[in-house]
Design a protein that fits this description.
The structure holds two protein chains of two kinds. Chain A is mainly alpha-helical. Chain A has two domains: about 130 residues, Cytochrome Bc1 Complex, Chain D, domain 2 (Orthogonal Bundle), CATH 1.10.760; about 120 residues, Cytochrome c-like domain (Cytochrome Bc1 Complex, Chain D, domain 2), CATH 1.10.760.10. Chain A is about 40% helix and about 5% strand. In chain A, a hairpin with a 4-residue loop joins strand 1 and strand 2. Chain B folds into two domains: about 50 residues; about 230 residues, Cytochrome c-like domain (Cytochrome Bc1 Complex, Chain D, domain 2). In chain B, strand 1 and strand 2 form a beta hairpin. In chain B, helix 7 packs across helix 11. The radius of gyration of chain B is 22 Å and the shape is globular. The chains are: A mainly alpha, B mainly alpha. Chains A and B meet through helix 4 and helix 8 of A and helix 1, helix 7 and helix 10 of B.
Chain lengths: ~325, ~280
């Protein structure tokens, strides 16, 4: 048979149709509806085991320090307070400390309370406990480059961490908080470096990665602090149940928690609540870099223009 | 045959690489899908479908009420143990259900219906997003499916359909509740209060209020209320966590807490929360 022009045309048409059909089929098989044989794993979702059961010890071990009795200082109990004027001042100080939004509202510019970082009413070791800080003051502070008193330190807390106005040194709030801190550190000699002061120590072994941080955040933090880091508000009362880690209601860029290493020391030793040391040093740093990259109020030391006229949403 | 460190076998390394492409394609397709769904939802919302949703919710509440009061076939009515208005029976330790979060009730019923795994199966309480994790985990397995066992409740929960569970959850969430404080010794209450508000800071044990809300009224679907629950029920549940009969908490937080509680702690804190007054408004 002779290969005519018509045959050529027919062959071309068939080839073009075939290619088009093939492309269409290939495109179709790439779509998830037809070729979806892999299970989709989504964070915060539950799945049954796909692996054989462990026959020996689990292979992912986390090192959690065991706390021995007497390792950390135990502050006095609130129930043991009497009815004296001093005790009243302690109670007022505690109220301001755990419910700053209500008892010191005029000095606070965001949605936080003191006890959001100084956990368990300022008693938790490695969560900047008051009983470890109070005996060390007055002390030299790099941030202000002078020797400051405990009261002046409280002013800085209001200015930076609470993103508000510093109360005067003789104000009722500063006095009550000082008395509360003094009562918590009952029995500690002045100038003693207590175990558990400040936050945990962080030794990084690799550069922190915000991408890993986002993954860890989603797994460990998002269920309480929200996917957008904005915390979760009460439905039946004002304020936050779980504090915001970013955004206009969080601490500003002058706060100590804005430093990645400080934040990581807090996260490693305290978060998630009750399951501290789930994240190791590097993972805590990752999470804190993720938090560091979010938007928050400006550093008030950068000047009036910056803090008032610059949009908060710029990171 | 390529067996990775993970213990999961792949026929070739190429297949592993293909997996990555597939997930990328799926993400794109998911994005397109979600766009379409969002547009559809907008259209539906604009056309005024709110009343329809309300109607469906009301129908679910009524169906739930019917099932709760009369039961069906071998399913006994919930009212027999949980009270006519979902208030529970404090003396027997049957919990109140009125005013609880619907998501919480739904999850508990599903977990109660689940079979306990055979001995030796490891459960990891933290969900990790492996598809986006840049690291290779040595253990590619398990998210906790949520396990809860109860001799009375598990056989009942296994007979409920998904719709039944939803209806019951919505019905009990819609009920209002006012707690009647139970008197207790003042020393017990003081110790319970100390644990509830401050925990044991020196041992790293967090306070109850830090997750279960300041008055113990609960928060969201993950953190159930403690106030207004029978003290026997609370003690029983902490015991179950310690004994491994309950393992369905968010991130395994409650497991870590329960393991640190002494017998006296349980009694004190349960008495403290049974002593709280509480008013809950049902969510329609």
């Amino acid at each position: 048979m002779k290969f005519t022009k018509l045959h050529k045309y027919a062959l071309a048409v068939v080839a073009v149709t075939g290619i088009a059909f093939g492309t269409w089929v290939a495109a179709d098989t790439q779509s998830p509806d037809s070729g979806d044989d892999l299970p989709t794993l989504e964070a915060m979702e539950t799945h049954v085991s796909m692996q054989r059961p462990h026959e020996s010890l689990p292979n992912e071990l986390t090192i959690v320090p065991v706390i021995k009795p007497g390792e950390y200082f135990v502050p006095p109990k609130l129930e043991d307070l009497d009815d004296s004027k001093y005790a009243d001042e302690v109670r007022l100080g505690r109220n301001i400390f755990i419910n700053t939004q209500e008892y010191a509202k005029r000095y606070v510019g965001n949605g936080l309370n003191c006890a959001n970082c100084h956990l368990q009413e300022g008693r938790k070791p490695h969560a900047a406990p008051l009983w470890a800080a109070y005996p060390l003051y007055p002390m030299y502070r790099d941030k202000s480059r002078q020797v400051i008193s405990f009261q002046e330190r409280l002013q800085d807390c209001f200015r930076f961490s609470m993103n508000g106005m510093a109360p005067t040194l003789d104000s009722r709030e500063v006095e009550a908080l000082t008395v509360y801190a003094q009562w918590l550190s009952t029995g500690i000699p002045t100038g003693t470096l207590m175990a558990g002061r400040g936050f945990a120590r962080i030794d990084k072994t690799e550069d922190p990665s915000p991408f890993n941080g986002a993954v860890h955040y989603k797994a460990y933090c998002a269920s309480c602090h929200g996917d957008d880091l904005m915390g979760k508000k009460f439905t039946n009362r004002p304020g936050y149940m779980f504090p915001p880690l970013a955004g206009p209601d969080s601490y500003n860029k002058g706060a100590g928690m804005y430093k990645v290493k400080t934040c990581a020391g807090f996260v490693k030793a305290n978060m998630p609540l009750g399951k501290s040391h789930v994240l190791n040093d590097d993972e805590a740093l990752d999470v804190c870099v993720h938090i560091f990259m979010q938007d928050r109020p400006w550093d008030p030391r950068k000047g009036m223009f910056m803090s008032i006229f610059m949009p908060v949403t710029e990171g | 045959m390529y067996v990775g460190e993970t213990g999961v076998s792949y026929s070739s390394i190429k297949e592993v690489k293909n997996m990555k492409f597939q997930t990328a394609n799926r993400d794109q397709a998911m994005f397109k899908k979600s766009l379409i769904v969002a547009l559809g939802a907008m259209v539906v919302a604009l056309s005024g479908c709110d009343s329809k949703e309300e109607k469906a919710n009301q129908a679910a509440i009524q169906a739930g009420q019917k099932l709760a009061e009369k039961g069906r076939d071998a399913i006994p009515g919930c009212v027999a143990c949980h009270g006519a208005h979902g208030e529970g029976i404090a003396a027997a330790g049957y919990p109140r259900l009125a005013g609880l979060n619907a998501g919480y009730i739904e999850k508990q019923l599903k977990d109660l219906a689940r079979e306990l795994p055979p001995a030796g199966v490891a459960i990891e309480a933290v969900a990790k997003d492996y598809s986006k994790t840049p690291r290779i985990y040595s253990d590619l397995t398990v998210f906790s499916p949520g396990l809860r066992h109860d001799d009375i409740m598990s056989p009942i929960a296994k007979q409920l359909s998904v719709a039944d569970i939803h209806n019951l959850a919505v019905y009990y969430a819609s009920l209002s509740y006012t707690a009647i404080p139970v008197a207790a010794d003042y020393q017990v209450l003081e110790r319970g209060q100390d644990l509830a508000l401050r925990g044991k800071a020196e041992y790293g044990l967090p306070a109850c209020v830090s997750c279960h809300a300041p008055d113990g009224e609960g928060f969201g679907a993950d953190f159930p209320p403690l106030a207004g629950q029978p003290s026997i029920y609370i003690v029983n549940q902490i015991n179950k966590w310690q004994q491994g009969q309950r393992d369905n908490d968010n991130l395994g937080l409650m497991k870590a807490v329960a393991d640190q509680l002494t017998d006296a702690d349980k009694l004190n804190v349960a008495a403290y929360y049974a002593n709280r007054s509480l008013t809950v408004k049902g969510q329609q």
